[in-house]
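Moderator note: this is an archived Q&A kept for reference. The question asked for a predicted structure of one protein chain; the sequence and the answer are reproduced below.
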Amino acid sequence: MKRYLRYIYTLLLCAFACGRMHAESIDIFLRHPVTASANISLLVQDLHSGEVIDSYRSTNVAPPASVMKLLPTATALETLGSDYQFSTYIEYSGYIAGGVLHGDLYVRGTGDPTLGSQKVGDRNLLTRWVKAIREAGIREIRGAVIADLSYFDADAVNPGWIWEDIGNYYAPGVYALSYLDNTMNVVLRSGAVGSIAEVQYTVPEVPGVKFDNHIRCTSIMHDGAYVHGAAYSYTRYLTGSVPSNQGSFGVQGDLPNPGLLLVQHLSKKLEESGVVITAEPTYISEADGKSRTLLYTWLSPPLRDIIYETNIHSNNLYAESLFRTFGARYTLPCTIHNSADFEKDYWLRRGVNTRSARIVDGCGLAPQDALSAETLVQLLTYMYRSLNKDAFYASLPVSGQSGTLRSLLAGTELSGKVHAKSGTIAATKNFAGYIELPNGQTWVFAVMVSFGNGKSKQIQQVIGNYLLDLYRVRGLVD
């Protein structure tokens, strides 16, 4: 009897000690100088039992930053399937006779972000398109090559984005026809301190683009330059600074109209192959009502590859293209607002509490975006049990190993054990995903820290230390 009581006493002492250490872990996290005054939403939960391991203001919302990408990638997998491929259609109006197309040639997009992409897809697509057009017997086009952008509405730039971001490579316009990652590299030549950097050329060359250039050369040793500009506008404003006396220096911005550049390049390729075209390439943002005949269908890589790129490298263009697709496929008219409503309602019907969520975009650039740790944990729990689990799980960066988690928990016991999406903006760092435990169990978690007293790297270190402490106290014991 005494031995039994001693055993119970020992268990109680261990439970008390673990509980105290657990309380100390969360207390240290909340009282740290970097996080003490921050907006925090936190939830760690056993995925299989549902037991709450740790929680702090888990139902309160916070800016998700790029953790927002979990929503459109999960929604796309569930509604479209991991094998889904975007279609781009080459069509023509009029008729073909004697090798002459008496009409226009159209390239009609449906939101494929991979056309000509350096990230995913076939970079030789124009060569394949020219071959298909010539195999159709076309040797002359008595009309134009036209980019049809009507699948999405004309609101290519999300109205929730801020001016600092709009026009930069990481915040490109989103169109039914994307091309070359919707990105151009502006090559500058930096000179003496205080001088204006000289714009030399762009890659790719963009006909008609003009620059209002205010980039100064300074003694800083990092790129502090920004590209600003509206969708469809061929004037780009260059501001900020670049290192002085560095010779050529590249600054990336978005393409003013990637669909138009695509058909300009296609027209040039056709002419180089011997096809005569009588009119200049152009674009339409609304369907022109002309009867058309399908000539060729181009298919994107499977959705699983697109989602892998979206989450592993936090690709804003890919996330926004998925997000806009919901508005085009499932609601009328196709608007950003309808995409957000569809996404919110879709998950609410599946038991994910999105009532308090504020969804403005798909990538997390909009400062008005707001999610709670609870919403993210519920979404992640659902996806872990989904038929699309493998594609979703594989798209998440791994701590200390890949993507945006390469530096998180590197060299610790949790290196390689955390599969999660990160989100970063000024004074904000978020993580949401899964933690693999030695006993084969899994935790699902979301830690969101915004307006912390420090840089995002400092916030990441504090979050990493907290997760490591929690793992040592609870993960190794349980």
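Archived answer notes: The CA atoms of residues 138 and 426 lie 54 Å apart.
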